[in-house]
Design a protein that fits this description.
Blueprint lengths: L3 E4 L2 E3 L5 E7 L9 E6 L6 E6 L6 E3 L7 E6 L4 E6 L8 E11 L2 E6 L3 E5 L2
Parallel strand pairs: 2-11
Antiparallel strand pairs: 1-3, 3-8, 4-5, 4-9, 5-6, 7-8, 9-10, 9-11
């Protein structure tokens, strides 16, 4: 059983900030890399940020580099996405994700999503 629960979304003005949280169930959180994706209606899902198992390595989509920061606290089984200098184009549903290899294939696990709306 793997469950991801997201929180922290909301309405913010351009230039504002939000911090998203994703709490994971179980005792295996620390061994998996974690990702944040976002998606708007009618558009493909976009990978926003990735963090390694220990938090020592991170990667970002070019559109958010310098503005977003992904981090994790393995003791709390939580991954965060700090979003600064938000732009209207950041508006999307944000999903926490991890990929787990089992039954001879990679399987995606997703949170329920949290809405981020950037509007003046």
């Amino acid at each position: 059983q793997v469950q991801l629960v997201e929180s922290g979304g909301g309405l913010v003005q351009p230039g504002g900030s939000l911090r998203l949280s994703c709490a994971a169930s179980g005792s295996i959180f620390s061994i998996y890399a974690m990702n944040w994706y976002r998606q708007t209606p009618g558009k493909e899902r976009e990978l926003v940020a990735t963090i390694s198992r220990t938090g020592g390595s991170t990667n970002y989509a070019g559109s958010v580099k310098g503005r977003f920061t992904i981090s994790r606290d393995n003791a709390k089984s939580t991954v965060y996405l700090q979003m600064n200098s938000l732009k209207p184009e950041d508006t999307a549903v944000y999903y926490c994700n991890t990929k787990i290899y089992s039954n001879w294939s990679w399987n995606d696990y997703w949170g329920q999503g949290t809405q981020v709306t950037v509007s003046s």
